[in-house]
Every structure is written in C-alpha cells, then in structure tokens.
Specification:
The structure holds two protein chains of two kinds. Chain A is mostly beta strands. Chain A contains no helices and twelve strands. In chain A, strands 2, 5, 6, 10, 11 and 12 form a six-stranded mixed β-sheet that branches. Chain A has a four-stranded antiparallel β-sheet with strand order 3-9-8-7, with no helix packed on it. A two-stranded antiparallel ribbon of chain A has the order 1-4. Chain A is globular, with a radius of gyration of 14 Å. The model of chain A has no long low-confidence stretch (mean pLDDT 90). Chain B is mostly beta strands. Helix content of chain B is 0%, strand content 54%. Chain B is built from no helices and eleven strands. In chain B, strands 2, 4, 5, 6, 9, 10 and 11 form a seven-stranded mixed β-sheet that branches. Classes of the chains: A mainly beta, B mainly beta. Chains A and B meet through β6, β10 and β11 of A and β5, β9 and β10 of B.
Chain lengths: 117, 112
C-alpha cells in the first residue's frame, strides 16, 4: 500500500540555520505530494505541493522537489526563523493508475521542528 | 484561515456516550474528508463524501458514521465512545473529489 516515511524528530536548530526534513514515499499510480504544517494548537495548513515528477513546490521560503527516481520530496529552507517552529507533515495522494477513484491523503508521522533564537 | 469551519473546538465526554462533530467546507467545495490524529496512530483518513455521497472509506470504526447534507456540511457521529477515541478530528474539503485538501482547525475530543 501507499506510505510516507519522514525523518525522525524532534529537530532543533538555531535561527538562520539551513533546514532539511527528509521524506520518502511508496505509491502506485501517479501521486501528488504535499507538505503540511501544524503550528501549536492549530490545524493543518498546506505549505506546498507538487503534482508530477520534477515539479518544485515553494512557499514562504520553503522548497521541495518531487524526485521520482529516488521517491523523495525533501523539505528545505535556507534560513529558518523562530516562527517556523511547528510540526511538519509530508503526505501523498494517489488516485491509482487509472487516475480514478476517491482521493485520500496518506501522511508521514510528522517531524517536530524547534528553532531557538 | 482555510475557510473550513469545525464545531465544537473542544468536546469532553464519558465512555459509552455519543457525540456529533460538525464541519462546514469552504464555499464551493463539494468534497469533505474526515481524519483522526492521535498520538499512537498519527494522522489517519477516516471517510470521504462528495456531493452528498460516500466516496471512500479508510480506517473508520463501525461505531463511527458520517454523512454530508444537501447544504454540503458534514457530520461525524461517534458512538459507544472508548478512552482510545480521544483524539483530534480534522475535516478537510476540496473542490471536487480530488485536488488540494484544505483543513479545518479540528475538534479535540477527550473521552474520560
């Protein structure tokens, strides 16, 4: 079945450090890939997405590139801020080879990120 | 603000009871999804409705049921509650039965 694996957390960095959160997936068909972020006490917010191989999603300084050859969608940011402290979820949706059927998101386990000033 | 609303924000109840969680999708969205977030299981898909019809089922217990009404809002009914049902329940919506899902703020259910 479809699955998503994220790097183990928690991750603690200093402000202005470079961030990478690894995400790999297993899927049939043609998955779309997403990063969602959950700030303390809040719901999930879509951070960025990519719908096909080699697409790069970007938002708020975060980037992730859909790599089909390595089945990866790693999240990166060049210079993190204290306000980036949150839990980050990698997810995929896959409607199968026929591109039909309902869509559900399959999530990784989440990576808690803490940025210290 | 995603435009998806959920009520109530918090719910505390006892084992054996029944509760109803409500979700209003973003304006124009026809599809509603329910997810459960718990410490041991992570984020799990429960069920999807599209324009009033059930479209997909995930790891939803038989004690749980959902429906989507003609005005497109959805309700998730949880009955015979157990301690293990304590979790955050999220609703998400999308324009059609595919596409980007936008999440509501969630309902935190505590079963005592």
């Amino acid at each position: 079945g479809n699955s998503v694996t994220q790097m183990e957390g928690p991750v603690t960095l200093s402000e202005e450090a470079f961030l990478t959160i690894n995400c790999t997936y297993t899927a049939t068909g043609y998955p779309s890939l997403f990063w969602y972020v959950q700030y303390p006490g809040e719901g999930l917010q879509l951070l960025l997405k990519a719908t096909k191989a080699d697409d790069k999603g970007s938002n708020k300084g975060f980037e992730a590139t859909y790599r089909k050859e390595t089945t990866s969608f790693h999240l990166e940011k060049g210079s993190v801020q204290v306000s980036d402290s949150a839990v980050y979820f990698c997810a995929l949706s896959d409607r199968g080879v026929e591109r039909r059927g309902a869509q559900k998101l399959v999530f990784g386990q989440g990576t808690r990120l803490t940025i210290n000033p | 603000d995603s435009g998806v609303t959920q009520t109530p924000k918090h719910l505390i109840t006892a084992t054996g009871q029944r509760v109803t969680l409500r979700c209003s999708p973003r304006s124009g969205d026809l599809s509603v999804y329910w997810y459960q977030q718990s410490l041991d299981q992570g984020l799990q898909f429960l069920i999807q409705y599209y324009n009033g019809e059930e479209r997909a089922k995930g790891n939803i217990l038989e004690r749980f049921s959902a429906q989507q009404f003609p005005d497109l809002h959805s309700e998730l009914n949880l009955s015979s509650l157990e301690l293990g049902d304590s979790a955050l329940y999220f609703c998400a919506s999308s324009v059609e039965d595919r596409g980007t899902q936008y999440f509501g703020p969630g309902t935190r259910l505590t079963v005592l």
